[in-house]
Design a protein that fits this description.
two-stranded parallel sheet; alpha/beta; globular; single chain; 40% helix; Rossmann fold
Length: 203
């Protein structure tokens, strides 16, 4: 987890008026090969990254299970935890939202949470740039005022502006594998953890 992730979460918290940001490291991400760091190590790094922010909390359930993680079952679990009436907001990047129709049980997301999509300043989501089935959901559920998210527990879609930071986790892993510096791309506490445990190094 790098500084662009943290900045996105902070801008979402402020721009959408969120009470809390819940970080949920995956046990085994379904859409990629097994991560180089174990689920326990990734969980530890997330905890270090958010430790100084009182509104950032970590949910360790998925990471501790070590099982493949899917968003709908995760939201179903959170619904049991937080109740049916509390508004929940799933934060997504615009690229992830454009591929939403490839997600496991994706139409059920709207029964469980709102969706907030991070956009570059000055750029709004456009239905004509989305797959047809995602565009239909977007046009039916779009709201322009974040305050609307507080009026119901789930089912709406809104956008929020985020500062564009060209920080790539893939690039960071490459730097680390070459023993190059990742300072100012990751929180210092995470860099220290990576160095202490010799993660992402080329064998």
């Amino acid at each position: 987890m790098h500084l662009a992730h943290l900045r996105l979460a902070e801008e979402a918290r402020q721009g959408l008026g969120l009470d809390q940001i819940l970080w949920i490291p995956a046990g085994q991400p379904w859409h990629r090969d097994s991560p180089q760091a174990s689920s326990a190590q990734r969980l530890a790094m997330v905890r270090l990254a958010v430790a100084d922010h009182p509104a950032f909390q970590v949910d360790s359930t998925e990471a501790e299970s070590g099982l493949p993680s899917y968003t709908v079952p995760t939201l179903e679990r959170l619904r049991l935890q937080y109740g049916k009436q509390r508004p929940l907001v799933l934060l997504l990047g615009a690229d992830a939202f454009a591929g939403l129709n490839r997600w496991h049980r994706w139409t059920e997301l709207f029964d469980l949470s709102h969706l907030a999509i991070a956009c570059r300043p000055g750029f709004d989501l456009s239905a004509d740039q989305l797959p047809e089935e995602v565009a239909r959901q977007y046009l039916a559920r779009r709201v322009d005022t974040p305050a609307a998210l507080k009026q119901s527990p789930a089912g709406l879609i809104t956008g929020f502006a985020m500062t564009p930071l060209a920080i790539s986790a893939t690039r960071i892993r490459h730097l680390l594998s070459c023993s190059e510096s990742a300072r100012y791309l990751l929180p210092d506490a995470v860099i220290d953890y990576i160095q202490r445990h010799q993660l992402y190094q080329t064998p």
